[in-house]
C-alpha cells in the first residue's frame, strides 16, 4: 500500500514542479534571465525539505511517501543536466558554470543545514 | 492545460514507481547507493530521446510529450535523494565513496545526456534523408 502512496505522491510532486515552472514563465523578469531560476529553486527547496523530513520523521511510511515519493518526483536531475548542456551549447559558459557551481554548493549547504540545524 | 497536468501526474506516478523499483533491486541494497545512480543516468539518457527524438518523429499530442519528459523522466530522476545519499556517506566518513558517487552522477549524467542527444540527432537526420 505504501508503494501506491509513494507513486501517487511522486505524481503530485511532478505537477507541483510543473506548476512552479509554469508560474515562473509568467514573470517577465525571470524570462529575461538565462539562469534556470525555477529548476534551481525546485532542486534546492526539495533538498532542504528532504533533510528536514529525514531528520524529523525518521524511518516511517510517511517519511518514505514524502521523501521518496513527493520530493523524489518534485526534484529532478535530468532537467538540471540538460539545462547545463543547453547553456554550454548556446555558448553561455559563465552562466553554465555559475549554474553548476551554485546548484551543487547550495544543495550541499541545504542538505547539511536542513539535517543538522532545522 | 488541464490535459498537460493530468498527463504529467499520471506519468509522474509511473516515473516514481519505476524509480522505487530500480532503487529496491537486490544489488542496490548495499552501502553504495547504486539505485540512485542508475535512475539518474537512465533519466539523463532518456530526456533528450523524449524531447528531441520522440517529439519530432512520433506523432503524439504535446500533452503526452510533456507528460513523458516533465512527468516520467523528471520524476524518475531525483536530486533530493542524490544529496541525501551524499550526506549519509559524508556522515559515515566514506569520503572516497562520496567522491566517486558524486562524480558518477554528475559526469556520468552529462555523458549520458550527450549520448542521448547524439542518438536523437543521428536518427532524426536519417529520417529526414528518406
From TrEMBL, chain A:
Q: Do the record's keywords include Transport?
A: yes
Q: Name one GO cellular component term.
A: plasma membrane
Residues spanning the membrane: 6-23, 35-58, 64-85, 97-117
Q: Which Pfam families match?
A: CRCB
**Any one of the GO BP annotations:** cellular detoxification of fluoride
Q: Which UniProt keywords apply?
A: Cell membrane, Ion channel, Ion transport, Membrane, Metal-binding, Sodium, Transmembrane, Transmembrane helix, Transport
> Where Na(+) is bound, by residue?
72, 75
Instruction: From the Swiss-Prot or TrEMBL record, state where the protein is found.
Output: Cell membrane
Chief place where the protein resides: membrane
Cited InterPro entries:
FluC
Q: Name one GO molecular function term.
A: fluoride channel activity
Q: Explain the regulation of its activity.
A: Na(+) is not transported, but it plays an essential structural role and its presence is essential for fluoride channel function.
Q: How does it sit in the membrane?
A: Multi-pass membrane protein
| Reaction(s) catalysed by this chain's protein | fluoride(in) = fluoride(out)
Its job: Fluoride-specific ion channel. Important for reducing fluoride concentration in the cell, thus reducing its toxicity.
Similarity-based family: Belongs to the fluoride channel Fluc/FEX (TC 1.A.43) family.
| Name of the molecule in the record | Fluoride-specific ion channel FluC
Name of the gene this protein is made from: fluC
From TrEMBL, chain B:
Q: Which residues cross the membrane?
A: 37-56, 63-82, 94-117
- Please provide one cellular component term from the Gene Ontology annotations of this protein: plasma membrane
Which chemical reaction does it catalyze?
fluoride(in) = fluoride(out)
Topological type in the membrane: Multi-pass membrane protein
Q: Which HAMAP family match?
A: FluC
What the protein does comes down to: Fluoride-specific ion channel. Important for reducing fluoride concentration in the cell, thus reducing its toxicity.
Chief location of this protein within or outside the cell: membrane
Which residues lie in coiled coils?
none
Report which superkingdom the organism of origin falls in.
Bacteria
For this entry, the protein name equals Fluoride-specific ion channel FluC
Q: What does the UniProt entry say about where the protein is found? A: Cell membrane
Pfam families attached to this UniProt entry: CRCB
A GO molecular function term, named singly, is: fluoride channel activity
- Specify the species: Paucilactobacillus suebicus DSM 5007 = KCTC 3549
Q: Which UniProt keywords apply?
A: Cell membrane, Ion channel, Ion transport, Membrane, Transmembrane, Transmembrane helix, Transport
Q: Which InterPro entries match?
A: FluC (IPR003691)
Question: What family does the entry list?
Answer: Belongs to the fluoride channel Fluc/FEX (TC 1.A.43) family.
GO:BP terms for this protein? cellular detoxification of fluoride
Amino acid at each position: 500500500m505504501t508503494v501506491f502512496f509513494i507513486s501517487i505522491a511522486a505524481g503530485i510532486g511532478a505537477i507541483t514542479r510543473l506548476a512552479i515552472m509554469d508560474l515562473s514563465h509568467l514573470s517577465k523578469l525571470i524570462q529575461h534571465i538565462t539562469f534556470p531560476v525555477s529548476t534551481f529553486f525546485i532542486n534546492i527547496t526539495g533538498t532542504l525539505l528532504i533533510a528536514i523530513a529525514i531528520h524529523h520523521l525518521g524511518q516511517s511510511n510517511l517519511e518514505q511517501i514524502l521523501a521518496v515519493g513527493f520530493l523524489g518526483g518534485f526534484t529532478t536531475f535530468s532537467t538540471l543536466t540538460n539545462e547545463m548542456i543547453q547553456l554550454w551549447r548556446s555558448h553561455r559558459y559563465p552562466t553554465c558554470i555559475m549554474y553548476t557551481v551554485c546548484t551543487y554548493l547550495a544543495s550541499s549547504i541545504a542538505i547539511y543545514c536542513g539535517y543538522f540545524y532545522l | 492545460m488541464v490535459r498537460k497536468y493530468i498527463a504529467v501526474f499520471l506519468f509522474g506516478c509511473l516515473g516514481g514507481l519505476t524509480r522505487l523499483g530500480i532503487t529496491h533491486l537486490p544489488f542496490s541494497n548495499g552501502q553504495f547507493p547504486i539505485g540512485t545512480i542508475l535512475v539518474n543516468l537512465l533519466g539523463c539518457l532518456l530526456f533528450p530521446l523524449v524531447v528531441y527524438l520522440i517529439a519530432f518523429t512520433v506523432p503524439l499530442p504535446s500533452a503526452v510529450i510533456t507528460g513523458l519528459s516533465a512527468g516520467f523522466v523528471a520524476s524518475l530522476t531525483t536530486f533530493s535523494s542524490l544529496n541525501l545519499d551524499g550526506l549519509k556517506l559524508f556522515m559515515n566518513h566514506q569520503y572516497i565513496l562520496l567522491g566517486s558517487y558524486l562524480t558518477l552522477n554528475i559526469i556520468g549524467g552529462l555523458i549520458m545526456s550527450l549520448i542521448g542527444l547524439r542518438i536523437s540527432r543521428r536518427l532524426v537526420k536519417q529520417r529526414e534523408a528518406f
